[in-house]
Amino acid sequence: MRIQQVSTFSADDNYNIIIDCFNTMAAELASVETLRTDIIANVSHEMKTPLAVMQNYGTLLQAPDLPEEKRVEYAKAITDASRRLADMMTNILKLNRLENQQIYPNLTTFDLGEQLCESLLQYESVWERKNVEIETDIADGVNVCADTELLSLVWNNLFSNAFKFTEDGGKVMLTLTADEEYATVKIADTGCGMSAEVGAHIFEKFYQGDTSHATQGNGLGLALVKRVVDIMQGEIGVESAVGVGTTFTVKIRRVDDGPEEAR
Ligand code: ADP
């Protein structure tokens, strides 16, 4: 819907401003509606794959005289698919709560270097299995006043991607530096990297640039990361080159000014 501007009288300037406002409002409402429809379409699509896997393997499991090894394989496929479904629902709920501002940051002062190490250590079995080298350079005593739970969501997603998109024998690097005002975290990898076209969309919900790893995620991780960084009044940037690697840089304020909506 678009309302035509009438400019017969110069005194109509105010009228035209109102028309402009209406047109902007109509465009915004239309885009919110499109976004909502897109999300429903995406969620339904993403749910279909694991559900189909569960149905197929469930049927196979019913075959009589199934060898033990097949029974274990099919049961595992069902468990994996249901875990993916559960992860996706958890991410959707988190994103929904973050977007609807139902989460108010719970601020405490803590050592950011320690939190980063804890998050990195969760991937020890992955880096050992993939023989990925780890390099860290973490400044001592960098305290930040932030929401630990929300921030760990950021590091977990960035590390999870770094290990996922890095081939066996690659390298993942973590750096923490700080000045009075900001703490800067860099999580870099020597993985597959991404093109500028992919890089332009990575923070969008359900966007997956690298389809070869599509089943290992749902395209919600970086949308969550971006939302948390915004709530924390921080900044996130990415530098990447195809076949060379990717570096995510997150800058967060060391002292929080309070939640977004209070400003
Ligand atoms: P998912 O990992 O579930 O696909 P994300 O939202 O975490 O979703 O990431 C979106 C996309 O960004 C990925 O599909 C991938 O194309 C790209 N991406 C993210 N991190 C990296 C990385 N470290 N190296 C290469 N590509 C990445």
Give a quick precis of the structure.
By secondary structure, the chain is α+β, with helices and mostly antiparallel strands. It has seven helices and seven strands, in the order H-H-E-H-H-E-E-H-E-E-H-H-E-E. It folds into two domains: 11-99, Helix Hairpins, CATH 1.10.287.130; 107-255, Histidine kinase-like ATPase, C-terminal domain (Heat Shock Protein 90).
Structure in words:
With 263 residues, the protein is α+β, with helices and mostly antiparallel strands. Helix content is 49%, strand content 18%. The strands form two sheets. A five-stranded mixed β-sheet has the order 2-4-5-7-6, covered by helices on one side. A two-stranded antiparallel ribbon has the order 1-3. The longest helix is centred in the N-terminal third of the chain and has 49 residues. The protein is globular and about 80 Å long. The C terminus is likely disordered. Adenosine-5'-diphosphate (ADP) binds next to helix 5 and helix 7. The site of adenosine-5'-diphosphate has 23 residues, from helix 5 and helix 7.
